[in-house]
Every structure is written in structure tokens, then in C-alpha cells.
Amino acid sequence: MIIEIANVDGEARKEWVLVEVQGEVLGDLNGPLGQISISGKIAVLEIGQHILEGEVVSLKQSFLVIEKNGVSNIQSNSVAGVIRKKIVFSSRPKTKKIVGK
Questions:
Q1: pLDDT tens track for 18-38
Q2: What distance lies between CA 43 and its chain's CA centroid?
Q3: Can you give the residue ranges of every domain in the chain?
Q4: What is the DSSP string of 22-37?
Q5: CA-based nearest residue to 21, from 49, 48, 55
Q6: Are 52 and 93 in contact (CB under 8 A)?
Q7: How far is Cα 97 from Cα 50, in angstroms, rounded to an integer?
Q8: Residue 53's closest CA among 98, 4, 21, 91?
Q9: For 59-76, what is each residue's pLDDT tens digit?
Q10: What pTM, to 2 d.p., does this model score?
Q11: Which of 15, 56, 22 minimizes the C-alpha distance to 39?
């Protein structure tokens, strides 16, 4: 079977980032995971009252994110994005300090 891979309507491909965490993430994974702030090669992920610090690393090989576009018996795929970097969160989470009360 030949599967054609094409860019959608000549649009620029979106740059995606792979997120790697050590351990297990529990909770509702259908919504947003948290908020990631990136400054240079340092990344900070805030999940609820927890803060994770990580590092932005370039991948040795890029990955393509492919979207299926199948209609009846004809199947074609398009490139939805390219992953060239990953954020590695390898330390234990810290608790946010709540100012106020």
C-alpha cells in the first residue's frame, strides 16, 4: 500500500515539542496538562500547585506528526507538525509557595 504524505495546502509546518516526565501523571488528561514557560534552555511546568523544572534538548532525529485524511477507500496523510526538540523534566516536583493567608 502506498501512503502519500503531503503538507496541507502549502501551510508552514507547526513546530511541536515532546514533553518527557519521570514517573506518572495522574488526573484528567483530556484537558490541558498545565502551563509551560520556556526561557532559553530552561523550562518550567506548572501543574496545579506543583512546579517542575526541566531542560530543552534537541533531538538527534526529528519526528513527523502525521494526520490521517481518509475518505472511503482512498487514504492520504498530511504532515501536521515536526518535532525537533524535547523538554526533559527529570527532577522531583516542588510545591508553589502561596503568598497571602
A1: 888 888 777 676 777 788 888
A2: 13
A3: 4-92
A4: SS---S--SS---EEE
A5: 55
A6: yes
A7: 9
A8: 91
A9: 999 988 888 876 667 777
A10: 0.70
A11: 56
